[in-house]
From TrEMBL, chain B:
Superkingdom of the source species: Bacteria
Stated name of the protein: Glucose-6-phosphate dehydrogenase assembly protein OpcA
Residue intervals of the Glucose-6-phosphate dehydrogenase assembly protein OpcA C-terminal domain: 170-297
Domain (Glucose-6-phosphate dehydrogenase assembly protein OpcA N-terminal): residue spans on this chain: 51-164
Pfam families according to UniProt: OpcA_G6PD_assem, OpcA_G6PD_C
Alphabetical list of InterPro entries matching this protein: G6PDH_assembly_OpcA, OpcA_G6PD_C, OpcA_G6PD_N
PANTHER family for the chain: OXPP CYCLE PROTEIN OPCA-RELATED (PTHR38658)
Length: 524, 311
């Protein structure tokens, strides 16, 4: 045994010498966490909600877990008359309120030293010059080595301005041996044409592999677990096809309404807001073939293949449904309807519920419908992927025994209560033969007090590490719009959204849509 | 829910576990490993608490084996087993059985533990104190994939460390090594920034600190330079200095959780390096259950020995 260890470490020593790598790192040393290399993060729109509630706390949590490099720096850019200390105070408050891990002075001290604030408008050249000198100063004083990620937490209409400014002031060009990355958030356009335009603008300045599109669903443990379950096990993949699967339901339901987001939401609607990115990504992960390796390039190849194979139903009227929430009671609270929300015109045709049927034209999935639905003010907040299997082809039990038996299902619970559920038939204890559905749940424990990394934490760390596995590329975004655009066009021309009472599981039309196929929605 | 069993057997304990699970209404078992804690009465409470906290990350069945010393010669011959079965809210996220062994059965603890292991799930044995001389040859240790000892809990740590070098078997690990992870992580991160050859190294710590010794050996193995051991007032490890041509790379933690990192040609900056509680150490141990090769290499200080014979 000792000899074996010796030879292996010898081998590795050669590798070390060849690459001139850090001698303290070793692939066998798996206790050492994936700590990001020397780097800094610049956030545009740092005063926004997302930044305060998600980004700043995520940065702190990463530092608290010891995953940020010494000297990590955080630069805020916004139109505020702030000094560095004011900015630090804002971050401090945000962290205190929203961080998931315990607040510790020493971690804060480590972070606070590297905080800078640059006040200014996006078309203010002087401000970008100041940003550039801040970046250079940090390289010198904190050892960030020229590695910076630019997080554009701003509405898409400002993207062109910001990326152009970054280019103009030489911030987008990485010095030799370092990197520059751009992080952008949805919406990635509102149709194929606008998505292409946006991508063109961003890619004029940053290469495709430098651009990280955040889809926070992909940062969730369960979503990554879909790949582990499918491709690390033997028992699922043989039945993961049209011979055994009857259909797939992907649901993302919210119990809240549009809240204060009327300006953003009206005219966009739930299909563009959720189906185009989150649900189609979940569908791609569920349906794709095995990637040849677990890296960004291979994952992109497989996801893109599935998205390209997606076919829309011929009769869009019969197989898509949209709705708007009407006044009602949601979870014990009386709530207004969409048209009564502040800032929404009473004639608005924006969908707050959308359900569509898609098929995947390949050998694995031919004839298996994928039903995607999303909505606001539904029964409860839940996101899940349910793979529903065909009934057993023959049953030796008489029909009274299996009256209560449904179809088998494997359900990935994405949120809340992440985990997996398997539904199957089991005998009811007793002397008579009675079979009914039972559910078996699996939930991996959460990391204790410091609960498991939040999606944003994971994604920010991945950006700093340059690991693009969990980020959709522009081809996927464009392909998703190609799928959704005809549906939106159809909706534009035909009828209006169906009304559904708040707190229910959507309009009756959606139930009819599945009934037409002889199926019904799961109650998630 | 708690069930007390006196003068009992493993099969009765198994029945009580099933009964307890049914009574709290969650009969399904979702645990990923069995944790066996071998300890004395004095350390049982703290160890169990740490294990239960760690079970939030790794849902597990925890078996606490307490060997009781009987006071009178007559009791010494009377062999019996008492158990306390805890499920639900009383047992973290898994279930816990506290086993008290009196008399002869104390020498055959494995016969009690074996029937109580979760089927087909990994087993981890942890000795908070009084670890056996050769953990892998211990009857309980032999049941486990992973054997956790703690050099902080022995009288003469450096001597015991030498013994561990000889007795090492894949699956052995020590909390003195676990405690070093943040240090090692930050040192590696520091060298990510200062990409130069290291020409000398020194580890500063209180006297007879086993973590410091392991850290020194690790640096010796990885950097292939002699590592000086410097005794300071402590507490535990207080600093590491790595000499390069351009100057020193230093992580200095004189006291408290705040350390300073100095790289040549760059201003000093602060680093959070806290001493982690036992529950976090155990949770880290449970994250990987295969052999820790780097620990083996570090224990042996392989490269130095090798150069010594070859040069």
């Amino acid at each position: 045994m000792s000899e074996q260890v010796l030879t292996r470490s010898e081998d590795f020593r050669d590798v070390v010498e060849v690459r001139g790598a850090n001698p303290l790192r070793d692939p066998r040393d798996r206790r050492l966490p994936r700590v990001a290399g020397p780097s800094g993060l610049v956030i545009f729109g740092v005063t926004g909600d997302l930044s305060r509630k998600k980004l700043m706390p995520a940065v702190y949590d990463l530092a608290n877990r010891g995953l940020l490099p010494p000297g990590f720096s955080l630069v805020g850019f916004a139109r505020r008359d702030w000094e560095d200390q004011d900015f630090a105070q804002v971050v401090h408050d945000a962290v205190r309120e929203h961080a998931r891990t315990q607040f510790r002075e020493e971690v804060w001290a480590q972070l606070a030293e590297g905080m800078r604030f640059v006040p200014g408008d996006f078309d203010d050249d002087a401000a970008f010059e100041q940003l550039r000198s801040a970046v250079e100063e940090l390289n010198a004083s904190r050892g960030t080595s020229g590695n910076f990620a630019f997080y554009l937490s701003v509405p898409p209409k400002f993207f062109p301005k910001v990326v152009q400014q970054l280019k103009k002031h030489g911030l987008a060009d990485a010095p030799e041996g370092s990197w520059r990355r751009a992080v952008i958030e949805k919406p990635f356009g509102h149709d194929l044409a606008s998505a292409r335009e946006l991508n063109a603008i961003v890619h004029e300045v940053f290469d495709p592999e430098q651009v990280f599109r955040i889809d926070h669903y992909l940062g969730k443990e369960t979503v990554q677990n879909i790949l582990a379950l499918r491709f690390a096990n033997q028992m699922y993949e043989p039945i993961w096809n049209r011979s055994f699967v009857d259909h797939v339901q992907i649901t993302m339901a919210e119990d809240i309404g549009i809240g204060g987001r009327a300006g953003y939401y009206d005219g966009i609607g739930s299909a563009r807001d959720v189906i185009q990115n989150h649900l189609l990504q979940l569908m791609a992960l569920t349906a794709m073939e095995e990637p040849i390796a677990f890296d960004a390039e291979s994952l992109l190849t497989e996801k893109l293949k599935v998205l390209k194979a997606v076919r829309l139903p011929e009769d869009l009227g019969a197989h898509t449904v949209r709705g708007q929430y009407a006044p009602g009671w949601q979870g014990g609270e009386q709530v207004p309807g969409y048209l009564q929300e502040e800032g929404i015109a009473p004639t608005s045709r924006t969908d707050t519920y959308a359900a569509i049927k898609l098929e995947v034209d390949n050998r694995r999935w031919a004839g298996v419908p994928f039903y995607l639905r999303t909505g606001k003010r539904l029964g409860r907040r839940v996101t899940e992927i349910a793979v529903v299997f065909q009934r057993a082809p023959h049953s030796p039990f008489d029909s009274t025994a299996t009256e209560e038996l449904g179809e088998n299902a494997v359900v990935f619970r994405v949120q809340p209560d992440e985990g997996m559920t398997v539904r199957f038939g089991s005998k009811v204890p007793g002397t008579s033969m009675e079979i009914r559905d039972v559910s078996m749940d699996f939930a991996y424990g959460e990391s204790f007090t410091e609960s498991s990394p939040e999606a944003y934490e994971r994604l920010i760390l991945d950006v700093l590490l340059g690991d693009a596995n969990l980020f959709p590329r522009h081809q996927e975004v464009e392909e998703s719009w190609r799928i959704l655009d005809p549906i939106e066009e159809h909706w534009e021309r035909h009828g209006g959204p169906a009304q559904y009472r708040s707190g229910t599981w959507g309009p009756e039309e959606a139930d009819e849509m599945l009934a037409r196929d002889g199926r019904s929605w799961r109650r998630p | 829910m708690k069930i007390d069993l006196t003068d009992t057997t493993a099969s009765k304990i198994n029945k009580a576990l099933v009964q307890g699970r049914r009574a709290i209404g969650t009969p399904a078992v979702g645990m990923v490993l069995t944790m066996v804690i071998v300890t004395d009465e004095e350390n049982a409470y703290d160890s169990l608490k740490a294990a239960e906290e760690a079970s939030h990350e790794h849902p597990s069945r925890t078996l606490v084996v307490i060997k009781r010393l009987a006071r009178t010669p007559r009791e010494r011959t009377r062999s019996h087993l008492d158990a306390e079965v805890r499920v639900g809210a009383d047992a973290g996220t898994g279930e816990t059985v506290v086993l008290r062994l009196y008399g002869d059965v104390a020498d055959h603890a494995d016969s009690v533990v074996l029937p109580l292991l979760l089927p087909d799930a990994p087993v981890v044995v942890w000795w908070p104190v009084n670890a056996p001389e050769v953990p892998s040859k211990d009857p309980l240790g032999a049941l486990a994939q992973r054997r956790i000892t703690d050099l902080y809990a022995v009288e003469n740590p450096i001597a015991v460390l030498e013994q561990r070098v000889v007795s090492y078997a894949p699956g052995d690990t020590d909390l003195a090594w676990t405690r070093l992870t943040p240090w090692r992580s930050m040192l590696a991160a520091a060298l990510d920034q200062a990409r130069t050859e290291i020409t000398s190294a020194a580890v500063e710590s209180e006297a007879e600190n086993p973590s410091a010794e392991l850290l020194a050996r690790w640096l010796q193995v990885r950097l292939r330079v002699p590592v000086e051991r410097v005794v300071t007032a402590g507490p535990v490890v207080t600093g590491v200095r790595l000499g390069t041509e351009k100057g020193e790379v230093v992580i200095d933690r004189p006291e408290g959780p705040l350390a300073t990192l100095t790289l040549p040609g760059q201003p000093a900056r602060t680093l959070a390096l806290k001493v982690r509680p036992m529950s976090e150490l155990i949770a880290e141990e449970l994250r990987r259950l295969d052999a820790d090769e780097m620990y083996a290499v570090t224990l042996r200080g392989e490269h130095t020995k090798e150069t010594a014979t070859h040069v």
